[in-house]
TrEMBL record:
Cellular component annotations (GO), alphabetically ordered: cytosolic large ribosomal subunit
Alphabetized SUPFAM superfamilies for the sequence: Ribosomal proteins L15p and L18e (SSF52080)
Location of region: Disordered: 1-38
Protein name: 60S ribosomal protein L27a-3
Keyword Ribosomal protein: yes
Bias type Basic residues, positions: 1-14, 21-30
Entry keywords, A to Z: Ribonucleoprotein, Ribosomal protein
Family: Belongs to the universal ribosomal protein uL15 family.
GO molecular function: structural constituent of ribosome
Gene3D superfamilies hit by this protein: 3.100.10.10
Length: 104
């Protein structure tokens, strides 16, 4: 669109050029991007994006409910027992060959 047809040309000579005297057209009045989602933009986030904030807590893995990791689907066929995992997070592994180092 050529400059002479733009709305800005129409607004020339009028004091606030359509942006209002009270609110004023200033840089970033609400913050940039998604700023204030937990504070001053709370209503918008709760209304249009429910569940946007927070985490879902996973049940702690127990002996009966340990996640099974099949590494063969990722192209690995041997699992080495080097390293350690936290005691309260048991994990079952599945591979063609499994090695576990005895703890001293």
């Amino acid at each position: 669109m050529t400059t002479r047809f733009k709305k800005n040309r129409k607004k020339r000579g009028h004091v606030s050029a359509g942006h209002g005297r009270i609110g004023k057209h200033r840089k970033h009045p609400g913050g940039r991007g998604n700023a204030g989602g937990m504070h001053h933009h709370r209503i918008l986030f709760d209304k249009y994006h429910p569940g946007y904030f927070g985490k879902e807590v996973k049940d702690k893995a127990s002996k009966d409910n340990a996640p099974l990791i099949d590494v063969t689907q990722f192209g690995y066929f041997k699992v080495l027992g080097k390293g350690s995992l936290p005691a309260d997070h048991p994990v079952e592994g599945q591979a063609r060959v499994e090695e576990c180092r005895e703890e001293d």
